Amino acid sequence: MLLTIDVGNTNIVLGLYSGNDLAGDWRMRTDARMTADELALTMRGLLGSHADAVTGISALSTVPAVLRELRVMLSRYYARVPKIVIEPGVRTGVPLLVDNPKEVGADRLVNTLAAHHLHPSTACVVVDFGTSTNVDAISAKGEFLGGAFAPGIEISVDALAARAAALRKVELVPPRSVIGKNTVECLQSGILYGFAGQVDGLVKRIKRELSPGGVDPVAVIATGGLAPLVLGESETITEHAPDLTLLGLRLVYERNHRV
């Protein structure tokens, strides 16, 4: 079975593939101070009875400190298992049409590969709701064209609660109406509908550049742990692919190892 490991700034997501099927997935909190031994122990606990069934590993990390410990963990506990860590020089098959390809994060790379796999002849926009909200453009040929970054939902909520004495964190659910009748509803409205409007605005502008005049179709794919908060309010998102990054990790592994 193939173990995919996606280390993000907030969470580490594990996926276990049996062939092309995702047999299971788990989520744990990212801690930049975690050691290789702690990482191995936690992962083994989550995998349970599947821990000894791992025959290949594909991993990425956008956190440098964890990337270092991830490499140690893989070499120490999975020395005989074929593995790949996504980094510059790894074959992904994704052309990077940007000023500095080395700046492109591994998560954006594998998301591009996965989106093109799902829509092989259609331009795509991937909206990744994570620590930051990434809106990336992909050509119909599978080329990574660039994108836009915005502060993520949780970062924005934390900053607002920290800087405004009369405001606080609230449960992120839709309020009774857009016009909030109390402080909690005002915050909920601004967060949910505000972020949906931000995403829709960016996506519409990107779609106009990808398909001038709206002649060609453009798929808009949402992924990331916070995507469900915005899905119901967005006017531009056409599908939800919660395991998009894990799929991309599987595809990169298959490009570099015979399976």
Automatic annotation (TrEMBL):
Known pathway: Cofactor biosynthesis; coenzyme A biosynthesis; CoA from (R)-pantothenate: step 1/5
Cofactor(s) the protein needs: K(+); NH4(+)
UniProtKB keywords: ATP-binding, Coenzyme A biosynthesis, Cytoplasm, Kinase, Metal-binding, Nucleotide-binding, Potassium, Transferase
InterPro entries the UniProt entry points to: ATPase_NBD (IPR043129), Type_III_PanK (IPR004619)
Coiled coil spans: none
First-level EC class: transferase
Active site per database record: D107
The enzyme's E.C. designation: 2.7.1.33
List of residues binding K(+): D128
CC cofactor note: A monovalent cation. Ammonium or potassium.
CC annotations in GO: cytoplasm
GO biological process, one term: coenzyme A biosynthetic process
Top-level taxon in the UniProt lineage: Bacteria
Subcellular locations according to the entry: Cytoplasm
Catalytic activity: (R)-pantothenate + ATP = (R)-4'-phosphopantothenate + ADP + H(+)
Family: Belongs to the type III pantothenate kinase family.
HAMAP family registered for this protein in UniProt: Pantothen_kinase_3
Protein name as it appears in the record: Type III pantothenate kinase
